[in-house]
Amino acid sequence: MPAETISVKGFKLQDTPPIYFTAISGKWLLQRTTPSWRIEDPEKGFQRIVRETRAREIALAVLDQGRTFPNAIVLATNVANFEDKDFAIKIPHSVRFLVVDGQHRLWAQKFSGFNAEYACLIHMGLSEIEMARLFLEINDNQKRVPSSLRWDLVRLVRPDDDPFAIASVDIVYLLATEEESPLFQRIDLTGEQSEILLKQGSLAPDIRKLLTPKYPLNKLSFEQQYNIISQYFISIKELDRDSWGTPASSFYKARVLRALLRLMPDLINHQKIAPELITYNHFLSYLKKIDVKSLDPDVIRLAQGSAGMKAIYDQMKKQTLGK
Questions:
Q1: Which CA distances in Å does 161 have to 157, 166, 205, 216, 252?
Q2: Which among 22, 252, 284, 313 would be 20 to 30 A from 322, CA to CA?
Q3: How far apart are the first and last CA of the chain?
Q4: What is the CA radius of gyration of the chain?
Q5: By the 8 A CB rule, do 104 and 58 touch?
Q6: How far apart are CA 60 and CA 72, in angstroms?
Q7: Integer Cα distance of 25 and 235 in angstroms
Q8: pLDDT for residue 151
Q9: With the C-alpha atoms ordered 263, 211, 283, 243, is the resulting torsion angle positive or negative?
Q10: Could you tell me if 161 and 145 are in contact, meaning their C-beta atoms sit under 8 angstroms apart?
């Protein structure tokens, strides 16, 4: 009968919270790790978070030379403790680790025949939210976390210092999961679903901005904020109902939707009624004035960065509200 655990060299670095320092076989570790606890398919998760070219370069320069890495990778697990004695640690084969830091170093093992020993710092007994917090603390200080994944982690961590970010990701989540929403199952929340064109990382920053004190939605309740944003997307969908949600749609494109979100406060302020009373028909009366030809994919594709976004916004504002 095969053993239920693997014995590795190591020791408990601290008791509270428990952290182990150990050395683990790269090939064994790779089968039991995920780059995000939020991503169901570990291999796809690695493929989306790390750059394969960089991982292959690491494999060639380090692993294929029979060397290992001088610095430890950081792991986290929800397992409370491992059995340890005399500088040996027993780790269950069923364990699942989150790679908090060192994703490229570990993924390099996939491209090398040399089975390296990886020095590991393992944070024990963490909940999903605590793992997300640790991931953000380490990775935000070192390199850019994929945008959609970072916003999805914000929904879990719920940082006290940014209530607008929390409200924006909650709104995006409802837009993606409520069946009556015009964006139901049409927003990729983590950035791992290539078949979904619209990413949370594209919408959340502009929705967050709408909720800040400078804009008319700020004084509304969360339910009212979600309702008016949902009504706005319903009106956009009405402009392009036959193609909505497909690459053929003129309006279902990240840059176009971002520009439309920037236009939303102007349309609200132009109304003669309270924001909470505005429906999709009020928005539609303005949005139907947009010239679809001006949203030609080749034109939009040339609009890069904030300057490009402003050009799209200015054009839509002129078409809907005049000079």
A1: 11, 10, 16, 21, 32
A2: 252
A3: 79
A4: 24
A5: yes
A6: 19
A7: 55
A8: 87
A9: positive
A10: no
Q: Show the tokens assigned to 166.
A: 């929390």
* Phi, psi for 12 (deg, rounded to 5): -85, 120
Q: How does the average pLDDT of the chain come out, rounded?
A: 87
Give the Å distances, CA to CA, from 118 to 70, 179, 207. Answer: 9, 45, 42
Q: Where are the beta strands (DSSP E) in 144-211?
A: none
Decide if 166 contacts 158 (C-beta within 8 A): yes
Q: What is the dihedral of CA 17, 23, 27, 33, to 10 degrees?
A: 10
Please state, in angstroms and rounded to a whole number, the distance separating the CA atoms of residues 253 and 312: 12
Question: Phi first, then psi: what are they for 85, rounded to 5°?
Answer: -165, 135
pLDDT tens for 6-51 read 999 999 999 888 999 999 999 999 999 988 777 777 787 777 778 8
d(CA 38, CA 155): 12
Q: What is the Cα–Cα distance from 227 to 224, expressed in whole angstroms?
A: 5
Tokens of 272: 């003669």
Mean pLDDT by groups of 10 residues along the chain of 323 residues? 82 91 95 81 76 87 87 92 92 92 91 94 90 76 67 81 89 94 92 85 94 91 95 93 86 90 94 89 93 74 61 89 80
* Residue 74 backbone zone (phi > 0: left; psi -120 to 50: alpha; other: beta): beta
Give the model confidence (pLDDT) of 136-151 as tens digits.
777 665 555 568 888 8
- Show Cβ contacts of residue 240 under 8 Å, excluding neighbours closer than 6 positions: 249, 250, 251, 252, 292
Task: Look up the pTM and report it.
Answer: 0.62
The residues with which 14 forms a beta bridge, in sequence order, are 19
Q: How far apart are CA 311 and CA 196, in angstroms?
A: 26
